[in-house]
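I am still getting used to backbone structure tokens and would like to learn alongside you. Please make up or recall a protein chain and show it to me in full. Would you write everything just below, so we can both look at the same thing?
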Amino acid sequence: MCIAVFMWKSHPVYPLILLLNRDELYNRPTEPLGWWEDGGILGGRDVQAGGTWLACTKHGKLAFLTNVREIRSDSQVKSRGELPIRFLKVAPSCLVIFSKFRFCGSLDLSETNFSSGCDFRFFSFFRKDLLQVMMHESWVSLQGTKSPREFAEELVGEADQFHGFNLIVADLRSMTMVYVTNRPKGGVHVTEVSSGIHVLSNAQLDTPWPKAVRLRHSFEDVVEKFFNSEISLKDITEILMKDTTKDDGNELPGIYPPELEYQLSAIFVETDTAMGRYGTRSTSAFVLKTNREVSFYETYLENDEWKEQTTSFHIEEVES
């Protein structure tokens, strides 16, 4: 299900402090935090569907996702985990796309510059199936060139093709962040995230579910304690995100059966379901400093053992 708490543009040292617990079946294949094959995306990955719940790029784009708690009615929908990838995807030139395929014959592209775009009529002599794959890859990748608002507004038109989701996308160079959900109280719309502390659980942003309120208050206390000093990512995740306290049944949403609602009311979830053991599989901490240095920490469960790693980098400018 996941829960995230973050402070946005309200700290003198850290413009962004983000903590996120990912809840999932223990037997669902997952890759831990790392740079993906092309080196463009940093994050964990759901092996089964290929998506992610939290990831970023070296150019300062960030996306994270939670599910909306609901009774599912249609299994024939797109994977929500693809949404962060579509925002983060780095747009390749046509030459990069070409390098992924083998063609009969040859084509001299040495005198042609495709960096500003592609005209696929140029490639009409290629096999149709390969051309379709190339065009899809280019379309998905070009989504990665959009601003957070542009991407989210474009997503509104297909929001009903997914189970309930909460998606936050941000550009850490321009310091813009937007939120979109396909389960709003009104029509689907895009909201700019205001500065301050926010909690994203399995309802709309800042919905005061008991564990969300508890996490917010705890986060406020910890941030105040470390307001003018360095924050230990390991310590802050241990203090805030390992809380197994459960809430009184009368305060819970009542969407699932009472016992399951009770188990899910903890910030750190551990429970058994008909499909197997379920709970918090990983905890992530993502911080951005004013000098554009990013630190991305993850502690994750692998073969019944908790492991951890941290990756740090400076945000790079986008090459023109």
